[in-house]
Write a structure and sequence with these properties.
With 425 residues, the chain is an alpha/beta fold. The chain has helices at 11-26, 50-65, 76-80, 82-86, 103-108, 151-155, 163-175, 201-211, 253-259, 265-278, 297-310, 337-360, and strands spanning 2-7, 30-31, 40-45, 70-75, 91-95, 133-137, 139-140, 159-160, 180-184, 216-219, 243-245, 283-290, 314-319, 366-377, 381-388, 393-398, 406-415, 418-423. Helix 11 (297-310) runs parallel beside helix 12 (337-360).
Length: 425
């Protein structure tokens, strides 16, 4: 059977479809790069914003029009809207989040423990999901109650995967020649808190670095209140990527309280200062929500000023999207959509400016780049695009197709697309 896999949303969704890919291959099925080649399509949906939910439904309609005989959907939108998902054209299976780790066995009518033994090396998923980086789910669910977040409802309480399972999946990725491992979770910093006795993300990262040998190890999003200054000592190991994604959401203390975020602007600034002191040239990126209920002009001005002062290396900006079932959707003083959108543009401009300032600091310097995509040129070889360990997008020309390789690059310039450079011998 030909199987096509796709997802909307976070890196955790990507890590899950990579696991599905390994299991479908182990069961003797073939992964294809387009839905119109597939007998079965699996879509991992998202509902973090109204736009993400719309994108999820659109993907389902697109693959149905492509002619797949079976469509299985899972993920946050499908979990919260089972009947609506089942009513969509072509959908034959809806697998809620609490059962999604067993999606392949459920769809193929195999025993739940069918894939618990045996070694299956990772291979990149064909098509748009042909990624060099291997996303490894180490944790799922969340016990925080941020008032805007629907993910905690859709994903359930926090649950950590065992160290043994994580190490086995990393070894499978390395056996498949993955050059970078990315640890993913809904609340990554809570890994091990539900164990008896409790453990920590610090211990997990130490264990991975000591018991496996990834060329690069990257951490996905981390809630700032989970980290202490001694956490940054881990970056003495050069394999750990110099990138911290720390969601701020707002630079106003009053707004953060209504969001039920366990951080203040002052504590966030102190954490960033400690990180920068411990990790030279670290890239610190963030998430921001504009137009949260009750965000006055004064609160937004405070937030924008704080974001500018943080000199982030980049970030994502979301206009507040009221998600039914969340506490924030019931708050008074909802901000009008045009105001949310205008504030979004202001913050995007701030982050765009600070990202450019961070990037130009590296012109003339040498960084190692993992090449993730390439385009054939008529006479001059290949145009490559990849990431440095500190999350800089870099392009270069090369006579060979260097996909999934790490090479040193001297950075020579900067434009709207990012940095470009010369590959060193």
């Amino acid at each position: 059977m030909n199987v096509y896999l796709d997802s909307v949303g976070c890196r955790l969704n990507q890590s899950e479809i990579e696991s599905y890919a390994r299991h479908f291959r182990a069961a003797g099925h073939h992964l294809v790069e387009c839905a119109d080649q597939a007998d079965l399509v699996v879509i991992n949906t998202c509902t973090v914003t109204a736009e993400a939910a719309s994108d999820s439904r659109q993907k389902i309609r697109q693959v149905s029009r492509a002619g797949a005989s079976q469509i299985a959907v899972t993920g946050c939108w499908a979990t919260l809207n089972v009947e609506a998902a089942l009513a969509m054209p072509g959908v034959s299976h809806v697998v809620p989040n609490l059962r999604k780790d067993h999606l392949v066995t459920e769809v193929l009518h195999l025993p739940v423990d069918h894939f618990e033994s045996g070694f299956i090396e990772r291979q990149p998923i064909p098509g748009a999901r042909l990624r060099t980086r291997a996303f490894i789910k180490v944790q799922d669910g969340c016990d925080n109650r941020c008032t805007f977040c629907l993910t905690t409802i859709a994903r359930g309480p926090g649950r950590s995967r065992s160290l043994t399972a994580i190490l086995a999946e990393i070894r499978a990725a390395l056996a498949g020649n993955s050059q970078e491992i990315v640890l993913s979770g809904v609340h990554l910093g809570s890994w091990g808190h539900d164990f008896t006795p409790p453990s920590s993300l610090h211990y997990l990262v130490q264990s991975i670095l000591s018991e496996t040998n990834p060329p690069r190890l990257r951490l996905s999003s981390l809630e700032p209140w989970d980290l202490q200054a001694d956490f940054f000592e881990l970056w003495r190991d050069p394999r750990l990527c110099r990138h911290l994604h720390l969601p701020l959401q707002s630079g106003s203390a009053a707004t953060l309280r209504r969001m039920a975020r366990k951080i203040t602007p002052g504590a966030f600034a102190s954490l960033v200062e400690a990180a920068r002191a411990a990790i030279p040239e670290v890239a610190i990126t963030t998430d921001v929500i504009t137009g949260f209920p009750g965000e006055s002009e004064t609160e937004f001005a405070e937030s924008a000023q704080f974001i500018q002062a943080m000199d982030f290396a980049g970030g994502h900006v979301f206009s507040y999207s009221a998600r039914p079932g969340t506490a924030a959707a019931r708050l008074p003083d909802q901000v009008q959509p045009p105001v949310r959108k205008n504030r979004n543009h202001i913050v995007r401009d701030i982050l765009k400016s600070s990202a450019a300032a961070y990037q130009v600091r590296f012109i003339g310097k040498e960084l190692t780049v993992l090449w993730e995509s390439l385009t054939a040129l008529d006479d001059t070889g290949w145009q490559l695009s990849g990431l440095s360990d500190n999350c800089l997008r870099i392009t270069a020309l090369a006579p060979q197709a260097l996909w999934n390789t790490l090479t040193p690059v001297r950075l020579t310039g900067h434009n709207q697309a990012g940095l470009h450079g010369l590959i060193l011998e």
